[in-house]
Amino acid sequence: MNYLAHLYFAKPTAASHFGNLLGDFQKGVNVAALPKPVQLGLQTHRQVDKFTDSHSITKSAKQLFSPTRRRFAGIALDVLYDHFLIKNWQQYHNASLTDFKRQSFSLLHDNLHIMPAQMQRVVSAMTHNDWFASYESVAGVGHALDNIAKRIRFQNQFGGSEVDIKKHYHRLESGFHTFFPQLVEHIRQQSIES
């Protein structure tokens, strides 16, 4: 899952928001030295990723991407699932997306000064430029994925993922609506941060 989904599972505290995003930036971080609530948020992040990556719907969805892009299909699905979450936000959350983003961005900024340097840069850019607003459209998702493709350190054919997404959009969205409630229930049952 991508950033919005990880924030969706965070508790409404600065420590939980920090921990739930830290999973993508933990390399070189002494996790044991972090406050327990941050560690628990990180555990939630890992559980979300583990469940998502091993789910049959996710595995099937990856096969819908062209062979040249399939290696990076997991990245594409992460961003696309944020798109589907945004598109259907009121179905999955009681607060408006605007209010949720405002609160989440504020909570992330509370710990910005102690985040790893790369996380600081990403969180600052994400909140300042409201990346989630660009995920509202398929074109925005495609643009975000093309930017990711450019940042990959080796030659790749990941660019143009929007073509695969458009071709299989309804099937991918249908899969999301089956998968996401199962993920929500799984995380609820784990009750890592309760």
Notable characteristics:
globular; single chain; 12 helices; mainly alpha; 70% helix; 194 residues
Number of strands: 0
Order of helices and strands: HHHHHHHHHHHH
- Count of DSSP-assigned helices: 12
Large-scale geometry: globular
Main β sheet profile: none
Describe this structure in words.
By secondary structure, this protein is mainly alpha-helical. The protein has helices spanning 3-9, 14-22, 36-54, 56-62, 73-87, 89-92, 97-110, 117-129, 131-134, 138-151, 161-167, 169-190.
Brief sketch in words of this structure:
The protein is an all-alpha fold.
List the helices and strands and how they pair.
Blueprint: H1 3-9, H2 14-22, H3 36-54, H4 56-62, H5 73-87, H6 89-92, H7 97-110, H8 117-129, H9 131-134, H10 138-151, H11 161-167, H12 169-190
Helix pairs in contact: 2-3, 2-7, 3-12, 5-10, 10-11
